[in-house]
Specification:
- The strands form 3 sheets. Strands 8-9-7-10-11-12-13 form a 7-stranded mixed beta sheet, sandwiched between helices.
- It folds into 2 domains: 5-150, no CATH class; 182-377, Rossmann fold.
- The protein contains 11 helices and 13 strands.
- α6 (204-211) packs across α11.
- By secondary structure, it is an alpha/beta fold.
């Protein structure tokens, strides 16, 4: 790799791989206040092909320099025009071929080249080379008459100054206004008392803060060899299992619907030894007759995480009884929330990880409960 080098110690020209590199070397020689500028040069090649491009910084431009570091590329010059360029001149790029006179709102390309400096500095700090592409996009958009806000090639704006703190009085929002009857509405849809904001806190913000106190579900393990059990009715457990596959980025083959027998247990053991993550769907609905056999089989598998999949239409007492039979659960996955008038019935009973296949969060709970209250008022 060729290192940056000083091309001419008399003229003070420094070559670099990037504009910032060349300017940095020149400023180290002339000082931070010197009027250093940067140009692009081409050398070598055959018939204009395979020429080597470099960036040269200094106070005086080199012969044959191309003024295109931060400005749009000027139209191609004729051979005669290039020969007349001297080392001490900095003429603007020649005007393009005859075209209709630009309006005051649409400056010509040559005018943009003249008015745009080759180097962008902020005090003594160099601006990254990415700033040049932004100016190029602005110039191209101005010449073509396109809107910069919708220009497809324009990069994101570059921040050259750190944002300064601005103190602005917050505008009153509807979310900070108390909502009449909010607590009563939440009670009607089954939300337990600890999760109902009251008084001046009966706002949307207050509701979100209150719901943030719900028990948090533990993180689902993702290490190789982890075994995750989803137990519930076939429909609900399958839906929760597919949601886990999507959230963990697992393959469809990692979801196993297993029977409670030794063959299935041995299959899980082989997958664990091969360092594969397994999501097991174990059928065991709230009113299943074989629940007494579910808990011992799950215990033999030695799962790292057990999720109970239950419909939101279930009663709290039924889920508590079912939970006592299937054994310890790390979290619940609620489904069919739109099919019940009391989606808050199971809140606080156990950590709730999924709401209709989506990760449970205070915001998702707010939307779910508000939708339920509106349905009840109709």
């Amino acid at each position: 790799m060729k290192l940056p080098q000083q091309l001419n110690s008399v003229a003070g020209q420094f070559e670099g791989r990037t504009p910032a590199e060349a300017v940095r070397m020149a400023r180290a020689e002339f000082g931070t206040d010197a009027p250093v500028r940067c140009w692009k040069t081409r050398s070598g090649g055959v018939l204009g092909f395979f020429a080597r491009e470099a960036f040269v910084a200094g106070i005086t431009p080199p012969a044959g320099a191309i003024k295109a570091v931060r400005t749009p590329r000027p139209p191609k010059e004729s051979k005669e025009a290039r020969e007349t360029t001297t080392a001490t001149s900095d003429l603007p790029a020649p005007s393009p071929s005859p075209s209709p006179s630009p309006s005051p709102d649409r400056p010509s390309l040559s005018k943009l080249v003249e008015d745009t400096s080759d180097e962008v500095t902020l005090g003594c700090a160099q601006v990254p080379a990415a700033a040049f592409s932004e100016v190029l996009a602005e110039a191209q958009a101005a010449v073509s008459g396109t809107d910069l806000a919708t220009h497809p090639q324009r990069p994101a704006p570059l921040e050259v100054l750190p944002a300064l703190p601005v103190l602005v009085a917050p505008e009153p929002s509807q979310s900070s206004e108390p909502i009449d009857g909010l607590c009563d509405s939440l009670a009607r849809i089954g939300v337990p008392v600890p999760y109902r904001p009251t008084g001046s806190g009966a706002t949307l913000d207050g509701l979100a803060r209150t719901l943030a106190s719900l028990p948090a579900a533990p993180a689902v393990p993702t290490l190789g060899g982890s075994v995750i059990v989803v137990v519930g009715a076939a429909r609900d457990a399958q839906a929760a299992g597919r949601a886990l596959l999507a959230s963990l980025g697992l393959a469809a083959s990692d979801l196993l619907t297993v029977d409670r027998n030794d063959a299935a247990r041995q299959r899980v053991a082989r997958r664990r030894s091969s360092n594969r993550v397994s999501v097991l769907v174990v059928e065991g609905s709230l009113r299943a007759r074989h629940l007494a056999a579910v808990a011992p089989w799950i215990e033999q598998v030695k799962p790292d995480y057990v999720m109970g999949a239950v419909p939101a239409t279930a009663k709290r007492a039924d889920v508590e009884q079912w939970r006592a039979q299937v054994g310890p659960l790390d979290a619940l996955a609620l489904s069919r929330l739109g099919a019940t008038a009391s989606p808050g019935e199971l809140m606080g009973l156990l950590p709730i990880a999924l709401l209709d296949g989506e990760e449970a969060s205070p915001l998702r709970w707010v939307l779910t409960l508000l939708r339920a209250t509106l349905e009840c008022e109709r």
